[in-house]
Amino acid sequence: MDxxxxxxxLKAVIFDLDGVITDTAEWHFLAWSELAKSIGIHINKEFNxxxxxxxxxxxLERILDMGGIAHTFTEKxxxxxxxxxxxxxxxxxxxxxxxxxxxxxxxxxxxxxxxHIKIGLASASKNAPSILDALQIxxxxxxxxxxxxxxxxxxxxxxxxSAAEKLSVNPRNCVGIEDSIAGLQSIRxxxxxxIGVGTLDIMKEAGANLVxxxxxxxxxxxxxxxxxxxxxxx
Length: 234
Known about the structure:
It catalyses: beta-D-glucose 1-phosphate = beta-D-glucose 6-phosphate. Its EC number is 5.4.2.6. Mg(2+) binds at residues 16, 18, 178-179. The protein has 10 helices and 6 strands. The chain is α/β, with parallel strands linked by helices and 234 residues long. The protein has 2 domains: 6-23 and 102-232, HAD superfamily/HAD-like (Rossmann fold); 25-93, DNA polymerase, domain 1 (Orthogonal Bundle), CATH 1.10.150.240.
């Protein structure tokens, strides 16, 4: 396709949730630790980092593999274990308030809405709608992609592509925001402009088009500038 055939304008921003909008990592860790302890496995925070951005069932598989006991559970029992972990986690989520939203996020959401930029969520968390409600920002999101309705989880691009499709926006006109290596690969393979929030070296190595140390740096002006430079390189 000739570059002039389709102008690349920023039309949608698609967010990851954990590590981008708020931090539930500590609560995930506590919930997984409680479950793991109940089946004789100890996990530490370093191991918990490996669980970022992947599904609940895949997280469980990694924990069971680490403990060398994956073969001792049937698929039905694994589902029950995952449900038990989620029960612990949901109990912890009752402590969440709008104070738990990351710096600059609400202001950025308001700016996007004011400028008619569509907003979507592409999170592996099945509890995402409840978290948005607790943070009191549900109103900003036209779409929350359902992780249970995509064929493959991150690092596959499916969930970001699903969000773009539901927003009726070409992926090339979307920006995805992530904090994990798996998430950035998902954005990249979806054909979107990617923003990595975190350590420069790690985010760049993961392929982020733009790296921010903090969500407080998110502004529409900055996004448009970088997106337009990126679009000219197509």
